[in-house]
Design goal:
The protein is of the alpha/beta class and 375 residues long. Helix content is 33%, strand content 19%. Strand 13 and strand 14 form a beta hairpin. The longest helix has 24 residues. It is globular and about 65 Å long. It starts with a helix and ends in a 5-residue tail after the last strand. The model has no long low-confidence stretch (mean pLDDT 89). It binds adenosine-5'-diphosphate and ligand VHF. Adenosine-5'-diphosphate binds next to helix 2, strand 6 and helix 8. It catalyses: L-glutamate + ATP = L-glutamyl 5-phosphate + ADP. Belongs to the glutamate 5-kinase family.
Length: 375
């Protein structure tokens, strides 16, 4: 049985995510002592030669006090404003403290869209790879100042899991204000869980949504989801408190270790299975189900019975069988306006009728995830 310590000591590249609750004080300021201790702990990893990407929350919380706000605002515009103020402060502190170790910090702000479109996905990947190759510490956060409610990750736990996937990291480390996953909310007598081998180990575990004083966003639910995204893609995950980071990085057994289960696979479409904002549905016939789901082929217009919803080309659609069960998700190459004239027709006929652009599949197999076993 591989230990979390062994996984970490041998890691070539890790993604560390730290939550708002670990970085901010109760009255909405940045907890400089905690941030400094975190940076020193991260340096332990880097000095062993491990590449580190830090996904840091805390922008909204850090922006509250400077704006005279007492609690996290409910409306998106004020959250955006607080994040725009707080993110700069946060980065200034990371830059200063990492500089004590002669390390250069790089800020990377991502939206869901950046990890969806093929071009922007490749861009994000190339940029992060280059930053690591140059020896910097990329500090990633959601681009809260511009992310709308509709296209938000909403929580950095999943953003961190998708970043770990994107970068083929060897481990995802989730640091919070609680030292482990408990089998029930820790303040009501839950007991720590040391190891999660698979979903069966989560039976009977009660996950709370809200953390301390509502500073964090997802509670334990999004952390366990993030761990599951990582492990199902072959990446082990570890969850403990930021205060325990030095012990964890030194190889001690602390917190909860989620064993990797799935095989490592292409990262680009991970978001499709776990997080996509679905804009429409394509209902397909039985022949198309066989071809697309079993045969792993592209979805052609001939097999589509009808299209539902209002979507643009490159938006995410669900691909459903005639009974309505979702069998796959993918990026539609055509908009909902273009589709009706194409459905049920062969690509050769469409090419002859409408031009060569219409000979393409509706959803290319490379732009699709089959959902059996992933959800
Ligand atoms: N089963 C559980 N095990 C551990 N912590 C839990 C559990 N259920 C709810 N929690 C709460 O989740 C909180 C962490 O989530 P959150 O506040 O979103 O953290 P962060 O800001 O680190 O993302 C903990 O403070 C804890 O009170
Ligand atoms: N992007 C937001 C953080 C959202 C979030 O996931 O917060 P948390 O649950 O504390 O990790 C911010 O920087 O405030």
């Amino acid at each position: 049985m591989i230990s979390s310590a062994a996984q970490l000591l041998g890691a070539r590249r890790v993604v560390v995510k730290v939550g708002s609750s670990s970085l901010t004080t109760l009255d909405g300021g940045i907890n400089l002592e905690a941030l400094t201790a975190l940076v020193h702990a991260c340096q332990q990893l880097r000095e062993r030669g491990t590449e580190l990407v830090l996904v840091s929350s805390g922008a909204i919380a850090a922006g509250l006090a400077p704006l005279g706000l007492r609690t996290r605002p409910a409306d998106l515009a004020t959250q955006q404003a607080a994040a725009a103020v707080g993110q700069g402060l946060l980065l200034a502190h990371y830059t200063r403290v990492f500089a004590e170790h002669r390390a250069t910090v790089a800020q990377v702000l991502l939206t869901v869209d950046d990890l969806i479109r093929r071009t922007t996905y490749t861009n994000a990947l190339r940029s992060l790879e280059k930053l690591l190759a140059l020896g910097t510490v990329p500090v990633v956060n959601e681009n809260d100042a511009v992310a709308t409610a509709e296209i938000r990750f909403g929580d950095n736990d999943r953003l961190a899991a998708l970043t770990a996937n994107l970068l083929h990291a060897d481990a995802l480390i989730l640091l919070s204000d609680v030292d482990a996953l408990y089998d029930g909310p820790p303040d009501t007598g839950g007991q720590p869980v040391a190891r999660v081998r698979g979903p069966e180990d989560l039976n009977g575990v009660t996950l709370g949504r809200r953390g301390r004083a509502g500073v964090g966003t997802g509670g334990m639910v999004t952390k366990v989801e993030a761990a599951q995204i990582a492990t199902s893609h072959g990446i082990p995950a570890m969850l403990t408190s930021a205060a325990n980071a030095p012990a964890l990085f030194a190889g001690e057994q602390v917190g909860t270790f989620f064993e990797a289960r799935g095989r490592r696979r292409g990262a680009r479409l991970a978001w499709l299975a776990h997080l996509a904002h679905v804009k429409g549905r394509l209902i397909i016939d039985e022949g198309a189900v066989q071809a697309v789901v079993r045969g792993r082929r592209s979805l052609l217009p001939a097999g589509i019975l009808r299209a539902e919803g209002d979507f643009e080309a490159s938006d995410v659609v669900e691909i459903c069988d005639a009974a309505g069960a979702v069998r796959a998700r993918g990026l539609s190459a055509f908009s909902s306006e273009e589709l009706p004239q194409m459905l049920g027709r062969s690509t050769t006929e469409l090419g002859a009728d409408l031009g060569p652009d219409y000979e393409r599949p509706i959803v290319h197999t490379d732009d699709m995830v089959r959902l059996e076993g992933t959800l």
